[in-house]
Every structure is written in C-alpha cells, then in structure tokens.
Amino acid sequence: MIVLGVESSCDETGLALYDTQRGLLAHALHSQIAMHEEYGGVVPELASRDHIRRAIPLLQQVLNKSGIDRHAIDVIAYTKGPGLAGALLVGASIACGLGLSLDKPVLGIHHLEGHLLSPLLSGDPPEFPFIALLVSGGHTQLMRVDGVGQYQLLGETLDDAAGEAFDKSAKLLGLGYPGGPAISRMAEFGDPTAYQLPRPMLHSKNLDFSFSGLKTAVLTVVKNQTSNLCEHDKANIARAFVDAIVDVLVAKCLAALKQTGLKRLVIAGGVGANKQLREALNAAAAKRRFRVYYPELEFCTDNGAMIAFAAAMRLQCNPSEASRDYAFNVLPRWPLEDLRISG
After folding, report:
1. Is 246 annotated as a binding residue?
2. Rounded to the nearest 5°, which phi and psi values hold at 191?
3. pLDDT at res. 227
4. Residue 343 pLDDT more than 60?
5. Would you say residue 121 lies in a domain?
6. Residue 64: which CATH number?
C-alpha cells in the first residue's frame, strides 16, 4: 500500500510517499521561516497562501524522486488537526481534490499522532508500550502509548508550550525568529552559574508543566540590566534558560517512567531536536537504565513523512478507516487522547 501524506498545519508544507512494503519512498518540505521572520512569528493568512503555492510543486517533486505514478497511490492522507484553521483547510482541500480526481480514498490524520509515531520511521524503532514527550512550539504533553490509537494523557502544560517559551525568550534576547535554535546555540557559550532561573512545577506531585513563569523570569533579568546586553550577557541568560527548561522536561519524563514502570521513552516534536535536551536525557537513560528514542532530525519538524506513516499504521489496524467522502472538515483543536482507531 502506497500512502501520500500532506502536512500543512502551520508554516511548513510537507509531502511524502510511504510504502508499507518498502518504507519511505520520498519526501519534500518547504519551510516558511524566511517569510514570517520579519513579522516575528507566523502570520496565518500568509501561511495559508504559501501552502497553496507550494503543495503541487512538492507533490511533483516526491513523485519524481520516487518514480511513482500518481495513479499508483492507494490512499491520500492529510493533517486534519490540530493547527491553524486556514492552513489545515488548504492541505485538506488539496488531499480531497486529489482523491476525487484519482478516485482514491482519503484519511485525515492527527498532527500530534504523526509526531508521536515518527520515531518508528527510524532503523531502531521503539516497541509499544512507551512514554512519549510531545514537545514543540504549540504543545508540551506526556503520553502513555500502548499502541496505535491508544493514548493516555499523563500531563501537559498549563500555559505556554516549551517551544513557545524558547522562541519568546530568544526574542527578549534579540535573537530573531525562530529563536529556539539560536538560544540553544548561544547557551553553549554561557556560564551556568551566572544566573539562576526558576524551574516551574519541578517538584509538583503531578506530570503537568508551566513555562510562563520562566519566560517572565527571563524578561525580569533582561529589564534589570543597567546597560544594553552584550553577547556575553546574552549567552549567560540563554544558558540559565536552557538549563531550567531542560531540567523540568527531564524530571517530568523520569517521573512518568517511574509512575508507569515503563522503560522506553520517545521524544517527538520540534524541541526534540534540542542538543541540550538530548544530552541530558541520554545521560539520564544511561544512569537509570531506560531507552530513549528520537525521530531523525529531519523529522523533528512538521513533515509529510510522519503523516503518511501514521496513516499507514492506522490503516494496517483498520483498512476501512480511509473513505471516499471528500466533504472534508478540519479540527483546529483536537485532543490527542480523544483519538481512537475507528471501525
């Protein structure tokens, strides 16, 4: 079975072809970072228009790379939610339009399920069950995963997502957009003893997160500087911020593993590419004797491959889940724990 995946939930347009026999055949991605940079964040209307421009050329690109004729596609999957409503509608309309023209069934996929299952695309995939940390610009959640469509929410952020805290703190330091990678790089040159920032909810008796206070603490440090921040100051603040957020994420992951008794941890989402987070988790895994799994770096960001793969896994559980009902709808808000295998 060959599945075409279409991802358009925010500011990346991704298309991919996945074959259940041969694996990932081809994928292509366009990021809108350069377009949104001057605005300091994603502009939804611009994002939607750019998805319209990019999707068909990217489709042709993956068809050319794979050597697959479009009529050989068996199912067309698209991101149904959560995400920006306009951006989701573009991807859904393209997928359903292709499905109608090719007489192929379509399947709407949960964006977070795509991230959650993306480490299974690697050469050393985790087995079920496992704990998953979904950590990105829009989400920070801990899930227990017992199988495809079997997700239990253990904890989530009460305010800002971790990736949002990265980007907004980087903006306070004048590091531009997107700031997550920039603040992570700058932190490598900082003195870990120069500043001490709070670790919100580090010692709470649950698995929830809160990052708005940490972001406010960075703002307070910046405002208390008597002169303009030099690069040395920025590096020290960046180091304090990254250390604080990594400490919280690692501690909550360890607590989830202890609470459930599981020994496998999956990290998914854009912040999963963070160097300091990976180093801290790898060190903890060696000490506590559990396995930690990450997506390939190219699949940490939003991408079509994860959508095609998630669809393939769902269809292996229930082949009738895809349909020729092209009256698509999208769900900008869609809790992952509500997702089940239908049928």
Report:
1. no
2. -90, 120
3. 76
4. no
5. no
6. 3.30.420.40
Question: Residue for token digits 């991230």?
Answer: 115
Residues 204-263 pLDDT 10s: 999 999 999 999 999 999 998 877 889 999 999 999 999 999 999 999 999 999 999 999
CB burial string 239-258: b at 16+ within 10 A, e below: bbbbbbbbebbbbbbbbbbe
- Residues 142, 208, single domain; the answer is yes
| 111 is annotated as contributing to ligand binding | yes
- Look at the alpha carbons of 297, 138, 260, 147 in this order and tell me if their dihedral is positive or negative: negative
Domain count, the chain: 2
Residues 166 and 247 in one domain: yes
CA atoms within 13 A on the CB side of 151: 23
Per-residue pLDDT tens digits for 161-216: 999 999 999 999 999 888 889 999 999 999 999 999 999 999 999 999 999 999 99
Q: Do both 209 and 314 map to the same domain?
A: no
137 has binding-site annotation: yes
Residue 134 in marked binding region: yes
Contact 15, 4 (CB under 8 A): yes
Query: Domain for residue 343, yes or no?
Result: no
Half-sphere CA count of 43, side-chain side, radius 13 A: 11
Tell me: is residue 67 an annotated ligand-binding position: no
136 annotated ligand binder: yes
Are 76 and 95 in contact by the 8 Å Cβ rule? The answer is yes
